[in-house]
Amino acid sequence: xxxxxxxxxxxxDFLERNHLVAIPTExxxxxxxxxxxxxxxxxxxxxxxxxxxxxxxVHTYNLKKVxxxxxxxxxxxxxxxxxxxxxxxxxxxxKKEVIxxxxxxxxxxxxxxxPNHPLTLNLLSQLSFPLAAPSxxxxxxxxxxxxxxxxxxxxxxxxxxxxxxxxxxxxxSTIVGEENGEIIIYRLGGLSIDDIESVVGxxxxxxxxxxxPKSPGQLKSHYAPKKPVYIGNLTQLQIKFxxxxxxxxxxxxxxxxxxNLIVKNLSSSKNYQEAAVNLFSFLxxxxxxxxxxxxxxxxxxxxxxxxxxxxxxxxxxx
Length: 318
Ligand code: TXA
Ligand code: MG
Hints:
The chain is an alpha/beta fold. It is built from 11 helices and 15 strands.
């Protein structure tokens, strides 16, 4: 099993020797390696069983450092960086040669993010290289929001987990780029569209769901537990699956009389941030119970509700 602790020097030592270390961020835990070293980066794909056509996000600790590995930043994207970094925002930027092709899966742009977590910012500032880090889960499974989540799934494959507590945002970063002067959101996430549009005006959304996505975080079946997830009207789903033991993910107060139901309330006060923080751990918890099926109702399509619904839809079988 991996050692769990908050020793930055230890994490630094492993990373400098091209080993993998799980790191906390405000969104989800990342599985980190030296982004400038292909051998270290290859270990990420191996540990996650992730196809190499799925590129990795590179993490650093200040905007000045970003210019070490990108050629330019479009003015609107620069405004977003200045407003929301450190934070749950990933920018797709034209890469310099120093970033190995393995990191970007051969794409011209590299995903860059400054995460908002004191331990990880401290670690990044001690290192002489940025960190490539996808979410620290096996490919296709739910992202981890605690050190224990990482331990359960990847503990056998990595030496160290830097424990920074539970993630405060709970959803992966929002991915944004620019094409022909247009600002595009490629993945919904912890930074809402409204927040982004308040800085750069109207953006377009390209959440590709084909089998050959530009970004596999856009793959339709992703972020999924092992138990089948159905989304719809909870009363109807309970009738439809009355012969099964059910787990229900709900939002706001609701009364259930069904004894054969485990209920997880994302937020009884209908707070979207609280719901985002709870979503992945509740999916995991239900996955570990003896329920046959997980049922869920979509949230109102506003603010973080959009990103939460995106993850619920991707977790669902239909
Ligand atoms: O919040 C986050 O973004 C977390 C934390 C650890 O930073 N990371 C994360 O990484 O969610 P990952 O690899 O699980 O998801 C990143 C998504 C993938 O779907 C990947 O395809 C896309 O970002 N991506 C990364 N680099 C890209 C690039 N150069 N072009 C297009 N998509 C890219
Ligand atoms: Mg991921």
